[in-house]
Write a structure and sequence with these properties.
Elements lengths: L10 E4 L2 E7 L5 E3 L36 H13 L3 H14 L4 H13 L3 H14 L4 H13 L3 H14 L4 H13 L3 H14 L4 H13 L3 H14 L4 H13 L3 H13 L5 H8 L2
Helix pairs in contact: 1-2, 1-3, 2-3, 3-4, 4-5, 5-6, 5-7, 6-7, 7-8, 7-9, 8-9, 9-10, 10-11, 11-12, 12-13
Length: about 280
């Protein structure tokens, strides 16, 4: 029943890298790195994804003899257009010129994840870590890749390595909680989600994941309370309504469940209509 997906965040420009983040709670956190001399520097933290400034040339503006940075940027644009194979081809070109270009390796790993090439993605993330052992984001992504393929314990090790580099790394704490929950260690998972909320009290994703962990423990009252907070923070969150409906149903309240599923359906949830048809009678 856990189909919750984080919505894409905006762009963050940091240290001459364009970072876009897409966190799938059942899968992968994606950061796209682009290099460009005209990208503005920002000292924002990883928890902020506001648009700062970026000016990447269009494909038609590329010089005849392309630099690795230009090719890498072109790969980013292809990725953003869901041309993953094209993006991989561009990152391959960069790596032919500069085999230790961590931006190209990282982005290629993301593109491989998009086409479900988990083995290839893990190899590329590991190369980034070999070149830059202090890259906490690489550990996070490698852990999320392992989480997606069911290697929960190995994923937790990577999240812990990321946290050794930054003990306040919210995404790593949240992801570790997810891995623990998927491993049925619900109480330990809830501790991680509460730790996230201590640092970020309005983190709707932590509340949502904590609710799912409580549902796993049979604590439907607690789950409904957490999902209600998610809805207060984000009234258009179809998944929160859907999961709260599940909590109501599993807790014995079919009528309230159907009301939440109807709202979820109106908000575009793909499973809500089926839930109403199957359990609404």
């Amino acid at each position: 029943m856990n189909s919750f997906i984080f919505q894409p965040n905006n762009l963050l420009i940091m240290n001459l890298r364009t970072i876009s983040s897409l966190l799938l709670l059942t899968g992968i956190q994606i950061h796209l790195y682009a290099q460009n001399s005209e990208i503005a520097y920002s000292d924002k933290t990883d928890q902020s994804y506001d648009i700062v400034q970026t000016q990447i040339n269009s494909d038609t503006d590329l010089p005849r003899k392309e630099s690795p940075n230009s090719i890498c940027n072109r790969g980013v644009r292809k990725f953003q257009k869901s041309d993953y194979q094209g993006a991989i081809a561009d990152y391959d070109l960069v790596l032919e010129i500069d085999p230790k270009n961590t931006n190209a390796l990282f982005n290629r790993a993301n593109a491989k994840m998009a086409i479900q090439d988990h083995k290839g993605a893990l190899a590329d993330y590991s190369l980034v870590i070999e070149i830059e052992p202090s890259d906490k984001v690489a550990y996070l992504h490698r852990g999320l890749t392992k989480l997606e393929i069911g290697q929960h314990k190995k994923a937790i090790k990577d999240f812990n390595l990321a946290l050794e580099l930054d003990k306040n790394y919210i995404e790593a704490i949240l992801s570790r909680g997810m891995a623990k929950s998927k491993n049925n260690h619900f109480e330990d998972a809830i501790k991680d989600f509460k730790l996230v909320l201590r640092n970020d009290p309005q983190n709707k994703n932590a509340y949502h994941q904590m609710a799912l962990a409580k549902m796993g423990m049979g604590n439907y009252v607690g789950a409904k309370k957490d999902l209600s907070i998610v809805i207060e923070i984000d009234p258009q969150n179809a998944e929160a309504f859907y999961q709260r409906g599940v909590a109501f149903f599993d807790g014995g309240s079919r009528k309230k469940a159907c009301l939440d599923w109807k709202t979820a359906q109106q908000l575009g949830h793909p499973l809500a209509k089926l839930a109403i048809q199957k359990y609404g009678q």
